Amino acid sequence: MHTNQIMFFVLILCIFSSSIQSRYTSCAPYHYGNQCDQKCNCAPQTHDCDDGPHGSGICTAILNIDTLPSTLQRKKQLIHSQFLASFEVLPHTFHNLLLDLSKDTHRRSRQVYDASGAQILPDPFKALELQLISLDINVASYLGMVLPTNLTTLNKRDLTEIFSGRLLLPGSKTFAHAYSGHQFGSWAGQLGDGRAITIGDRYSLTHRQHYEISLKGAGKTAFSRSGDGRAVLRNLCREYLAGTYLNALGVPTTGALALIASDANIDGIRRDEFYTGNPEKLRPGILVRVSPSFVRFGSFQHAAKRIGFQGVVKLARHVLHIVQEQETGGDRSYHQHFTDVPLTQHVPIHLRKQCLFSNDKIDTSSSSTTSPSTSSSCTAEFVNLDNLNDHDLLLCFFNRVVLRTAALIASWQSIGFAHGVMNTDNMAASGVTIDLNVFGLISNYKDHAKEFTPNYIDESSRYKFGNQQNIGKWNLQRIGDVLNGKTVFVGGDRDQPRAKQKNNKWLTSQEIANEMNQYNSKFQQCHDLRTKFRLGFATSTLLSSKATDQWMTWMSLRNVDFHLASRVLAELEENVNNNIAQDDEFVEYMIRTTGAVVPLSKDESLSLRDVLVSIRDAVFESIEMRHYSNFKEWQNHIRRVVPRYVMRTHALREIGEIVNGGDERALGIGWKLLSDPFRANFEEKDEDDQKLDALELYIKGQFEKLPSLGEKRMKTSCGGQ
User: Which residue in 20, 194, 459, 530 has the most C-beta neighbors within 10 A?
Assistant: First the structure.
């Protein structure tokens, strides 16, 4: 046989073998194995088979009270009635979305059409005993969940049953969100919740709004693709603490109710964080996430392509109802951070509402002409959103998502937060920070202000700190494409042709442009307010603007730590005559404490003395405006809004490693510090320090001290999640 004939034969054989293999990339429900000819003996609906060409054939099930053997029902029923009464959830999001409710609830990855999600049951861990690593009592409180003062061993065991998905809460209907999206600027097609399962919603009487509850790491869904549906415990610790910290600083962010862990020997998962080819076997966990909504920009892209106009409208109506509740009751971050700061009341009402996410009501009845900056939201104007026609509903939705996103990213920038992965599937349509997988805070201002990129795989620095404003706008334009009917023509996906239908109820290009034109100005307005507020100024004046600009310039010139520098300002003493010649010691203290790495020079264009004079002038002006009664009140304001304990990436990493090693106390210590990161004077030692053990002192020191150069450059990756 000639060489060419041999090559041709080999080619035909390869094609044939590939076609044979492709036949088995999907298997019939309840079938598994190489040719899917083996069958799981699983009860339909209540049990799920690990099927597919590489399936194990193992049946998994939810311990739903109604399906338990009679011998166990009595015990569970007792728990259900006595302990879980306040934990009942509502299928609010479940009923408001178009979902795939077929009986096809197996975990085989598949394309989902005509739906914004797919029904799925959590996949319980195999280990008999799970561990309740942490339970955030603050989150439980605003959700109205009543917990005993002291949790017993039995209580903790019951909570692990609930929050691991082994026991469905009363009223629970579980599903995974479907969404598509752009990742790093390229269209990726269908994505979806590959390891997160929504179990229901809670209505908070405190905040007068619904909160969606999701189990991250609860097992494979229709959207898992090649993933295992699990999450790494050490990285869930980072997400748990990050949400706590950002909310404490007034940034709307997903909260965490609880963290559950399993045994690495039984349920261990493998991850290759930095793609070295040497994956680690790691301990898995489940994070109970809480957010007003987990609907994303990518959810709208998916709805446009897979459902059509009515799918987009239904999704927009749901999100707009959520936003209306947020704007009526005020975001949790506002209540947690701003309400106890006296200066907040001196911020103009419309800015409190739009930039700080307050629940202030804006009365425009006395004015016949209202500007976009002072007018109330369309969610307030149209009280009954269900009466809006489709076009006006979409217009109102786009207005809110543009302005809330601008305000959200401004809040990130004002505290030095870099999200790390601003794909359209990682941006919430409700204006809340979600998906804290890869993130970080800037440290030395000069080096990191623009170029800091916390994501290891973001080689082009697309999502660097200095580009977040632009990326937010780019992502919003993709929403605009959806509402304009353009997204349906994006290629790279085998979408059904009916999604491409024309509809005169789509927003016009001009309407999209009008709303987008507000983005940059709203971002700048909110960023200016947040930055000045951090320095103790409630309103924009010539003196406060000068002081703020000079302070930011000086931090950049001297390359100081962004967080500690502003905190040290609280130690500045009053000098009525503005004669700070005697303040040489403080100047030196400022330089030493904040880690300035650029040496001082005699001919420097902007001295620290000049900056401090400007700040003092602005403070005295604020006193004259009756924002403060004296200089000391301004100092106390700085201590209340600039954290003493800073969420350093390396510290979060270490806490995760310690918890992964079996000492869950580390997470509790981190939570205590980051849930209230504002403490006492900068150099003042806590009276309790002598009572702290070695672990507590170590973690406390990691959040207080200047990071080293290696710590500043630490990055992480989605590969380790």
Answer: 530
- Quick one: which of 669, 645, 647, 648 has its CA closest to 658? 669
Spatial distance between the Cα atoms of 246 and 244, rounded to a whole number of angstroms: 6
Contact 301, 178 (CB under 8 A): no
Crossing angle of the two packed helices 309-329 and 390-415, in degrees rounded to 10: 50
SS3 270: strand
- Terminal alpha carbon distance of the chain: 52
22 three-class SS: helix
Question: Distance between CA 23 and CA 17 in Å, rounded?
Answer: 10
Bridge partner residues of 282 (DSSP) = 269
Q: With H, G, I as helix, E, B as strand and everything else as coil, classify residue 511.
A: helix
Phi, psi (5° rounding) for residue 680?
40, -170
Question: What is the mean predicted confidence (pLDDT) over 448-464?
Answer: 84
Per-residue tokens: 278: 């040497």
Is the CB of residue 661 less than 8 Å from the CB of residue 653?
A: no
Residue 621 has pLDDT above 90, yes or no: yes
Structural domain boundaries of the chain? 20-61, 63-301, 332-525, 526-641
How many residues can be counted in the chain? 721
Query: Is 263 one of the catalytic residues?
Result: no
User: Tokens representing 445?
Assistant: 């201002």
Beta bridge partners of 187: 182
Query: Could you tell me where the beta strands, DSSP code E, fall in 235-295?
Result: 255-261, 269-271, 280-282, 284-291
Average pLDDT of span 276-280 = 77
Bigger pLDDT: 304 or 87? 304
- Taking the CA atoms of 490, 495, 497 and 499 in sequence, report the sign of the dihedral they define: negative
* pLDDT number for residue 38: 73
User: Which one of the listed residues 123, 425, 481, 561 is annotated catalytic?
Assistant: 425
**What phi and psi values does residue 8 have, to the nearest 5 degrees?**
-65, -45
500 vs 209: CA distance, rounded Å: 35
Residues 364/375, Cβ–Cβ less than 8 Å: yes
Report yes or no: 352 and 343 within 8 Å, Cβ to Cβ.
Answer: no
DSSP 547-563: HHHHHHHHHHHHT-BHH
Q: Give how far the C-alpha of residue 361 lies from the chain's centroid of Cα atoms, to the nearest Å.
A: 27
Q: Give me the DSSP letters along 158-211.
A: HHHHHHTTSSPPTT---EEE--EEEETTEEEEE---SSEEEEEEEEETTTTEEE
Q: What is the structure's pLDDT at 172?
A: 86
The two tokens of residue 531 are 């930055």
